[in-house]
């Protein structure tokens, strides 16, 4: 008689799994623990004589169901040494479990060990690869191999393949799957039809999505919600609301919170209020539903109904990271940075971890906070402490810091943040370049752009905004050579026809006086927005080509002009006739319903003043619906000097000095007017008053480009390291000019 085995076999408790079904933490778990312990009793894991493959399968299934994947893998490896197999069903379940837990390598390892694979196995592999962006193309290869070896497809396999096509946004691949679905007759399944709709929506092929939807005998809620969400994501809001209306007319289907949430994110306020009313009347919904409640919060937030948003927020029983972020964004959108930061702190107290989008919003809100640097530093410290984010997420947060510091003019803080980014992405480079450009540090913007090109050519290809920002800086330093190089670069990478780059090129060429080049750019652009028209009109006006500016304005239709357009139009009229200026000024109200602002009145006064009608210009100032500012008085003072009206000039100069006592313009213009009349004592007195008040005239600034290096200098500037050489050469040139005379 043989002795009993050293280790108990599964045959000793064959009925345990049935007990376990009703007691997840009961008898079976205890027995399983004793069995596992017995395997390591002597310090080594000896081969266990699994006498019953059914019992082995039950234990393996238990490990998979409870998430003990390491134990499952160990048991599977041990079983591989035995002649019996785990079975295709259980092995497929292992593949699926490993894929769902993100252990792709283990899933492939099990897949490779399998002697038999069915459609479920292949579908699990394809679905698992679809969840991981790195394996999307592998999923395509698996599906192709699956078909080539003759595996009989089912609708689940086709649905998984459509998911891969959606993730890749590969319309051609998905259309081939659609053909396969039609041939196999799976298109009659509601689930497959919904997958087809989702695929076409994600690929932007709404005509095909609508065709599939319309061919469904009875579209279900998933089909409607997929269509509505897709239309919303593509900005086709009216069509999304229309689809929602169709859903509401179906008797036996009612929207769920995801349907309502999608349409609330896209609809107008009045429609949103009606949906909110429907939610209140319906017993199926409440303001406490997270998804729909958050969408309601966003609806009221973007319509500046902050009290309604606060009420919805207070009623939400569960607040997730999206809800908190939406409330912070609500306060930020309504320029209440203190409240935004306060809600952020409440979020931290509630132990909800912020994500990169939360930080991006709260950082943006800090831009208008009274203590920006301190608050931003504390948030940065928190981000480092939490250590929650990947490198890409950290980049997004850093980019939000860059944008905030740029808007607030905190250049030093902006540079510190940028220096900490180990691998700047396209947005990082663009934010820095735009920050320099917006804060008039044009030479720094151009220099950084060159650094970007040297480090990463692909960053340039991905960013039209970086190119447009540096073009603006090149225009500001009037570097035509640099601008032409950038234009060539735009042509090379195919960005010259893009609107933002084209607008920047027009601006650059007009500022450099190359109006013909600007016109060519305008004509070559694939489309024109309001900025395109404004840039060209302003270019004509700034070069004294008033008639061309007005002709371009008259060609704008159907583009509707804005306040900036009329600034350029009225500026163009200053070089023509005062009657044209008055007519265009009046048309702002009568034709375009635009209320003129201070800058428009300044342009009108300038046009009338240049025509010599100084008293009429003064009357316009006195009739304005707001107090005249410094700019309009300076404009009239310039006209007084132009026409030698010393009496009115003294009055206007007094107004300038009253508004800006440290501004040199009033004193200098008045002194020059006296000089024109030969009143030297009065001219000297105006200068003496200026000196007694310690007013200094701002030195003129200019740039010169030598050897692709831009040098800036002021009048009388001696800060350059080669100033002695410069002034020595200047003296020699001056002597040469005098000798030539």
The profile of the biggest β sheet is:
2 strands, antiparallel
Helix content: 55-70%
Structural class: mainly alpha
Low-confidence stretches: 1-54
User: How are the strands of the largest sheet arranged?
Assistant: 1-2
Estimate the global geometry from the Cα principal axes: elongated
Oligomeric form of this entry? Answer: single chain
Number of strands: 2
Rg calculated over all Cα atoms: 37 Å
**Proportion of residues in extended strands:** under 5%
- Mean pLDDT level: 77
**How many helices in DSSP terms?**
42
PPR repeats: 118-153, 220-255, 320-354, 425-459, 529-559
Organism: Zostera marina
Keywords: Repeat
GO molecular function: RNA binding
Structure in words:
The protein is mainly alpha-helical and 741 residues long. The protein has a domain at 710-741. A two-stranded antiparallel sheet has the order 1-2. It is elongated and about 110 Å long. The model is unreliable at 1-54 (pLDDT under 50).
Defining traits:
741 residues; two-stranded antiparallel sheet; elongated
Sequence-ordered SSE layout with sheet pairings:
Elements: H1 16-22, H2 27-39, H3 53-66, H4 69-80, H5 88-100, H6 104-113, H7 119-131, H8 136-148, H9 155-168, H10 171-184, H11 190-202, H12 206-215, H13 221-233, H14 237-248, H15 257-264, H16 269-281, H17 290-302, H18 306-315, H19 321-333, H20 337-349, H21 356-366, H22 372-386, H23 391-408, H24 411-420, H25 426-438, H26 442-455, H27 457-462, H28 464-476, H29 480-493, H30 499-511, H31 515-524, H32 530-542, H33 546-554, H34 563-573, H35 578-590, H36 598-610, H37 614-623, H38 630-643, H39 646-659, H40 665-676, H41 680-692, E1 701-706, E2 709-714, H42 723-740
Antiparallel strand pairs: 1-2
Helix pairs in contact: 1-2, 3-4, 3-5, 5-6, 5-7, 6-7, 7-8, 7-9, 8-9, 9-10, 9-11, 10-11, 11-12, 11-13, 12-13, 13-14, 13-15, 15-17, 17-18, 17-19, 18-19, 19-20, 19-21, 20-21, 21-23, 23-24, 23-25, 24-25, 25-26, 25-28, 26-28, 28-29, 28-30, 29-30, 30-31, 30-32, 31-32, 32-33, 32-34, 33-34, ...
């Amino acid at each position: 008689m043989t002795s009993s085995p050293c280790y108990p076999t599964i045959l000793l408790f064959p009925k345990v799994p049935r007990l376990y079904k009703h007691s997840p933490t009961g008898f079976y778990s205890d027995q399983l623990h004793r069995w596992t312990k017995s395997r390591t009793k002597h310090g080594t894991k000896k081969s266990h004589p699994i006498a019953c493959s059914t019992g082995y399968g039950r234990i393996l299934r238990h490990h998979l169901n409870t998430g003990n994947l390491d134990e499952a893998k160990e048991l599977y490896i041990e079983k591989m040494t035995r002649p019996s197999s785990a079975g295709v069903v259980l092995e497929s379940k292992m593949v699926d479990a490993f894929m769902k837990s993100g252990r792709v390598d283990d899933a492939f390892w099990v897949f490779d060990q399998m002697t038999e694979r069915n459609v479920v196995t292949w579908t699990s592999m394809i679905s698992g690869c679809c969840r991981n962006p790195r394996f999307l193309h592998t999923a395509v290869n698996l599906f192709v191999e699956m078909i080539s070896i003759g595996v009989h497809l089912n609708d689940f396999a086709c649905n998984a393949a459509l998911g891969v096509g959606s993730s890749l946004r590969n319309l051609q691949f998905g259309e081939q799957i659609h053909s396969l679905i039609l041939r196999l007759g799976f298109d009659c399944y509601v689930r497959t039809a919904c997958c087809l709709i989702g695929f076409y929506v994600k690929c932007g092929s709404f005509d095909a999505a609508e065709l599939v939807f319309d061919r469904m005998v009875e579209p279900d809620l998933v089909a409607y919600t997929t269509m509505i969400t897709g239309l919303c994501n593509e900005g086709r809001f009216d069509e999304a609301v229309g689809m929602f209306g169709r859903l509401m007319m179906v008797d036996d289907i009612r929207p769920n919170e995801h349907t309502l949430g999608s349409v609330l994110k896209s609809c107008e306020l009045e429609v949103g209020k009606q949906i909110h009313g429907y939610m209140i009347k319906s017993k199926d919904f409440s303001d406490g539903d997270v998804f729909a409640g958050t969408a309601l919060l966003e609806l009221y937030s973007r319509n500046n109904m902050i009290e309604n948003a606060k009420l919805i927020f207070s009623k939400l029983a569960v607040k997730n990271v999206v809800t908190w972020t939406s409330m912070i964004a609500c306060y930020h959108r309504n320029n209440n940075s203190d409240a935004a930061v306060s809600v952020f702190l409440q979020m931290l107290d509630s132990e909800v971890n912020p994500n990169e989008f939360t930080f991006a919003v709260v950082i943006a809100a800090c831009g208008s906070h009274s203590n920006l640097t301190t608050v931003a530093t504390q948030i940065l410290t928190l981000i480092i402490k939490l250590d929650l984010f990947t490198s890409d997420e950290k980049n997004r947060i850093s980019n939000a810091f860059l944008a905030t510091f740029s808007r607030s003019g905190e250049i030093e803080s902006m540079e510190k943040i940028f220096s900490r980014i180990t691998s700047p992405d396209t947005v990082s480079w663009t934010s820095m370049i735009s920050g320099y450009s917006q804060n008039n540090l044009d030479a720094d913007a151009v220099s950084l752009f060159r650094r970007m090109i040297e480090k990463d050519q692909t960053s340039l290809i991905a960013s039209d905004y970086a190119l447009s920002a540096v073009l603006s800086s090149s225009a500001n330093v009037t570097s035509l050579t640099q601008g032409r190089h950038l234009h060539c670069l735009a042509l090379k990478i195919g960005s010259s026809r893009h609107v933002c780059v084209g607008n920047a090129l027009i601006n650059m060429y007009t500022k450099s006086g190359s109006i013909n080049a600007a016109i060519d750019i305008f004509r070559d652009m694939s489309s024109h927005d309001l900025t395109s028209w404004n840039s060209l009109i302003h270019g004509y006006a700034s070069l004294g080509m008033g008639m061309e500016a007005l002709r371009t304005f008259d060609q704008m239709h159907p583009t509707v002009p804005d306040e900036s357009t009329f600034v350029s139009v009225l500026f163009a009229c200053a070089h023509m006739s005062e009657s044209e200026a008055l007519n265009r000024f009046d048309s702002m109200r009568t034709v375009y319903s635009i209320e003129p602002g201070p800058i428009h009145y300044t342009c009108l006064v300038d046009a009338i003043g240049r025509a010599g009608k100084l008293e009429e210009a003064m009357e316009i100032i006195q009739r304005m619906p707001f107090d005249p500012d410094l700019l309009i008085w300076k404009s009239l003072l310039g006209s007084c000097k132009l026409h030698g009206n010393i009496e009115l000039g003294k009055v206007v100069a007094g107004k300038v000095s009253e508004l800006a006592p440290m501004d040199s313009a009033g004193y200098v213009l008045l002194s020059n007017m006296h000089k024109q009349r030969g009143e030297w004592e009065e001219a000297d007195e105006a200068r003496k008053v200026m000196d007694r008040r310690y007013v200094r005239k701002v030195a003129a600034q200019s740039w010169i480009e030598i050897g692709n290096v831009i040098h800036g200098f002021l009048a009388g500037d001696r800060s350059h390291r080669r100033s002695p050489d410069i002034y020595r050469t200047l003296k020699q040139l001056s002597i040469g000019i005098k000798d030539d005379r």
